[in-house]
Structure to design on (860 residues):
């Protein structure tokens, strides 16, 4: 009894001390997707780097994906704890913009690695990538060199893709084909359909099936081979370069309008487009950093294909047409 | 004072209704707000919906038949071979498929039947074949586990009588076993049907594409992709209605057996060598079928970075979360199920069979309301008042307990009814109530099905991905969520190690609970 009491008191005191310390440093809450904050994601390094300078606590809250984040923020409205949202892509920005829940960042991104200059008062990009079909060089000697060749060659490689209703790359391919084929997209899908082994719910199922050897090519990113080179020293994988260009995905972050700490939130955004943040991205998120150029890229990234020209549909037409296009896709693919 | 059984049961039913209807009402309310207007409601008439509905039912019916019919034979074979070496281990193995996350099952099935697999099927895997292979992998072992206890309650003297009368195998089945099966089989069919109907990632991925869209996918699409809550709620109600229809159909064939319950030592009859060989072949085939995908997972996992991973604190945090959620959900679910079944059994004893079935059905059918609908609705209701992140555990546990209820009803229902039918008068005459009745009458009779129920719901909740994925972040992640996150980040070999860890945890929990609560096997109490 005698020995327990002081220890309890000491414990209580240190608890209170912690509590008061915590109350003294501001807490910045960022909603993001959960792979961002996992052990292997950028989260832990980003948190350490930002907290080293900000005199604050960075609280990264992981939700399943961009759609979940945005739906969550809409449901919470002005009661949200979030100061920032990090991890929606340009296919969602129009919807996010019209929700009226975001606040101008007032920062500028002068020279970015993005193919087109960035002009958006609400959202700032933190990384980007290009969709591509990835294949095993030992199994597929001559991959198609254009999207049209892939579509037209009825004896071409078999494919694994994702469902645009449930997956980001799946939606990416839908838009890619729409960008190239326009009104004839349904015919292109009809031609492709017999060679599509399956359409999975998410990226992970399709990629897993591809590694098990279920098809010649899988819809993924141009940067996927870099993962195998760097993390597994496996040089067998490559992305097929299509001469029409590759559809882009740009991931962005934005400040929440109801945030009480806009200054701190803005400092985070400034940090996000600095080299300290950007150099973490290539080998944790396996995407391209938006600033820093060659200095922040591992040498293996030099061996990746050049995806130019970058393809992107404007966010308004995506927001307006997405539903119709998906219905059109469903119609063709269900035949 | 005796509390009538109707009171706790009504409380449970009211809670169930609240847990299911309130979120749906929340979603409908939301659809009245600007920004969430319901989309085109003519989708009721669309060819798309008709196709989705037809496909959902078709694949679910086929999957159910292919799972449950062979399961009768396999369960029977297990029952007839009580001295089989490794019998308990094999039956433990049969509890595992239930907890493997869908995406891992897809990988396992592909390792066995894919183009580079051990038994390659090529492209024909994708379509109804793949869906059936995966669903049978999930549900055949479950049905075996649920049906096997039947043979343990067939009284010894029935077998002896059959032997004296010179019955052949078919006659024994028809006159001794079938009357028992008729009571349990409809419920098992319904449960497996519900599991297959609400299947999602497996159906989409192995089904070959959007041709294989189920109602569950359509619900997910309307709530996530279109954010049209009204449509999601209506589709969920459609799914509920469909299951009620199937429930009524299956229950029409249900008959209560007119035999007394007995927990007896397994009957060791003088079986012919031929029937033993057939039994062993059946068990062998089923074990291979269930074991091969698990074996492929084991082989993959043993090549994984095992030692690097066991030092990860996120892994052990997820391990602890999994265990905590599984155990809590199992206790809650069994407690709620116990009250429901006590009430339903007492109704049945009084001859109010329809009432009894309605109570049981209410406990089971909530399963088909997708967790996404419940969780999103709860979020709508709770988020203006509390920080939902502080409530992750209670919400996840409650929904998982809800999802476990049909399993409790299946495991425990028949024995509870029989215990009431046989011992209620004795209890009255001895004035045995409450704790004493539980201790002297119900515990010895029911501890076995109780053990199975708790063990099943615990591993089921431990394997849950649907609910935790909606709320979980790294701090609250469970092993299945971690597997999913690793697979989403190229970390496939790490994911297989995590999956192996999950399976080992489930195996241990299952064995401990089933043995600890159910008691030693093959001992008459």
């Amino acid at each position: 009894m005698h020995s327990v009491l002081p220890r309890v008191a000491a414990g209580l005191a240190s608890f209170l001390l912690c509590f008061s310390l915590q109350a003294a440093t501001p807490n910045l809450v960022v909603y993001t997707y959960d792979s961002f904050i996992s052990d292997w994601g950028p989260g832990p390094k980003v948190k350490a780097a930002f907290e080293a300078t900000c005199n604050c606590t960075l609280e990264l809250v992981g939700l399943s994906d961009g759609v979940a984040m945005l739906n969550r923020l809409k449901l919470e409205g002005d009661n949200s704890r979030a100061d920032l949202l990090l991890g929606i892509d340009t296919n969602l920005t129009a919807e996010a913009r019209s929700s009226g829940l975001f606040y101008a960042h007032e920062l500028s991104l002068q020279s970015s690695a993005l193919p087109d200059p960035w002009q958006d008062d609400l959202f700032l990009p933190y990384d980007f990538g290009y969709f591509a079909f990835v294949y095993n060089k030992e199994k597929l000697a001559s991959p198609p060199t254009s999207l049209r060749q892939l579509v037209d060659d009825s004896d071409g490689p078999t494919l694994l893709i994702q469902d645009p209703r449930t997956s980001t790359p799946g939606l990416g391919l839908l838009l890619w084909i729409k960008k190239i084929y326009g009104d004839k997209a349904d015919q292109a899908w009809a031609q492709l359909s017999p060679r599509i082994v399956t359409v999975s719910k998410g990226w992970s199922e399709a990629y897993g099936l591809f590694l098990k050897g279920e098809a010649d090519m899988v819809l993924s990113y141009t940067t996927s081979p870099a993962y195998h080179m760097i993390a597994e020293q496996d040089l067998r994988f490559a992305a097929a370069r299509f001469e029409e260009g590759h559809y882009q995905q740009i991931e962005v972050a934005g400040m929440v309008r109801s945030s009480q700490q806009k200054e701190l939130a803005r400092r985070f955004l400034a940090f996000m487009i600095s080299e300290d943040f950007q150099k973490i991205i290539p080998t944790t998120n396996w995407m391209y950093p938006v600033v820093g150029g060659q200095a922040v890229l591992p040498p293996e990234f030099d061996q990746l294909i050049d995806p130019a020209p970058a393809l992107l549909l404007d966010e308004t037409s995506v927001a307006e047409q997405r539903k119709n296009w998906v219905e059109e896709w469903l119609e063709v693919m269900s035949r | 004072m005796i509390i009538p059984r109707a009171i706790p049961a009504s409380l449970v039913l009211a809670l169930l209704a609240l847990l299911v209807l309130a979120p749906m009402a929340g979603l409908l309310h939301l659809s009245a707000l600007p920004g969430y207007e319901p989309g085109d409601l003519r989708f009721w008439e669309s060819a798309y919906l008709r196709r989705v509905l037809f496909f959902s039912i078709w694949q679910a019916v086929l999957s159910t038949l292919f799972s449950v019919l062979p399961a009768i034979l396999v369960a029977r074979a297990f029952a007839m071979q009580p001295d089989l070496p490794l019998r308990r281990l094999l039956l433990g193995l049969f509890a595992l498929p239930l907890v493997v996350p869908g995406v891992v099952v897809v990988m396992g099935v592909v390792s066995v039947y894919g183009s580079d697999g051990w038994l390659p099927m090529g492209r024909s895997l994708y379509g109804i074949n793949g869906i059936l292979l995966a669903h049978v992998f999930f549900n055949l072992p479950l049905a075996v586990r649920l049906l096997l206890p039947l043979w343990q309650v067939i009284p010894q003297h029935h077998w002896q009588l059959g032997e004296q009368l010179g019955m052949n195998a078919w006659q024994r089945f028809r006159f001794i076993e079938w009357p028992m099966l008729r009571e349990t089989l409809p419920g098992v069919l319904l449960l497996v049907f519900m599991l297959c109907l609400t299947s999602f990632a497996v159906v989409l991925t192995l089904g070959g594409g959007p041709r294989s869209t189920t109602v569950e996918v359509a619900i997910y699409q309307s709530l996530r992709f279109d954010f049209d809550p009204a449509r999601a709620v209506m589709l969920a109600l459609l799914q509920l209605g469909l299951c009620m229809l199937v429930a009524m159909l299956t229950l029409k064939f249900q008959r209560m057996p007119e035999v007394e319950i007995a927990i007896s030592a397994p009957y060791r009859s003088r079986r012919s060598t031929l029937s033993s060989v057939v039994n062993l072949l059946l068990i062998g085939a089923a074990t291979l079928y269930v074991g091969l995908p698990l074996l492929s997972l084991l082989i993959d996992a043993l090549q994984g970075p095992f030692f690097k991973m066991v030092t990860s604190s996120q892994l052990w945090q997820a391990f602890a979360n999994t265990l905590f959620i599984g155990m809590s959900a199992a206790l809650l679910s069994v407690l709620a199920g116990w009250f429901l079944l006590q009430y339903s059994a007492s109704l049945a004893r009084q001859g109010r069979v329809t009432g009894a079935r309605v109570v049981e059905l209410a406990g089971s059918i909530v399963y088909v309301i997708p967790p996404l609908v419940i969780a999103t609705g709860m979020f709508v209701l709770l988020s203006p008042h509390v920080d939902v992140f502080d409530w992750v555990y209670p919400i996840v546990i409650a929904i998982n307990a809800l999802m476990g209820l049909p399993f409790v009803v299946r495991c425990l229902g028949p024995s509870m009814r029989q215990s009431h039918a046989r011992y209620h008068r004795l209890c009255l005459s001895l004035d045995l109530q409450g704790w004493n009745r539980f201790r002297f009458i119900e515990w010895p009779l029911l501890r076995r099905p109780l053990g199975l129920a708790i063990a099943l719901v615990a591993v089921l909740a431990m394997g849950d991905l649907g609910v935790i994925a909606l709320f979980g972040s790294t701090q609250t992640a469970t092993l299945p969520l971690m597997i999913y996150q690793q697979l989403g980040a190229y970390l496939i070999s790490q994911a297989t190690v995590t999956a192996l860890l999950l399976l080992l945890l489930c195996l241990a929990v299952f064995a401990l609970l089933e043995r600890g609560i159910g008691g030693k096997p093959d001992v008459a109490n």
In short: Chain B touches chain A through 59 residues (CB under 8 Å). The longest helix of chain B spans residues 392-430.
